[in-house]
UniProtKB/TrEMBL annotation:
Lineage: Bacteria, Pseudomonadati, Pseudomonadota, Alphaproteobacteria, Rhodobacterales
Organism per entry: Ruegeria aquimaris
Residues of the signal peptide: 1-21
Listed name of the protein: Cytochrome c domain-containing protein
Keywords: Signal
Length: 167
């Protein structure tokens, strides 16, 4: 079982969440299968309910492996859904808490922001209604440093490619 957990963890880290979007929107999957018992949003779950200092991901209170728990079908997850969620949690963790610390005071969630106001046009993240190039906009928005603007662009693009929605 330990080998399977390690393999699942490695696979989840290597697979880009956008590549899994055709199977399921990780945000919607979390909200449908997990939010009833855990935090309403996956980002809150990762930062509030998982131990930020532990690798691989473990529960803050239980100390148990998230991969092992998901692998056993916690939340009635299929193996494919477990892989999607584990990759999603890892991507959230890797992206840091930049949205939480710099953006959340004005924008409720990154997923909500992307769904309401942003769109990928010809591979470029763009303001849905303004047509503004978001990479350029972030350099002068939210008091982001150049490296934070680049990091936030990556987060928003990851979400835009993983969220199933009709444009």
């Amino acid at each position: 079982m330990h080998g399977l957990t390690a393999a699942l963890s490695a696979l989840a880290i290597l697979i880009a969440p956008g590549a899994l979007a055709s199977e399921a929107d990780p945000h919607q999957l979390y909200e449908n299968k997990c939010a009833g018992c855990h935090s309403p949003h996956a980002g809150d779950f990762v930062w509030l309910e998982l131990d930020a200092g532990q690798e691989p991901l473990v529960g803050r209170n239980s100390g148990g492996s998230v991969a092992a728990l998901l692998e056993r079908g916690h939340g009635r997850l299929t193996p494919a859904e477990a892989t999607i969620l584990l990759a999603h949690f890892q991507a959230i963790r890797t992206s840091g808490q930049l949205f939480r610390t710099k953006c959340r005071m004005c924008h409720d969630t990154a997923t909500g922001l992307v769904s309401r106001a942003l769109i990928l046009r010809d591979g470029t993240l763009t303001g849905r209604y303004t047509g503004r190039d978001i990479a350029q906009f972030l350099t002068v928005h939210g008091r982001l440093t150049p490296s934070e603007a680049e990091q936030m662009l990556g987060v928003l693009e990851r979400i835009a490619t993983s969220v199933d929605r009709i444009d």
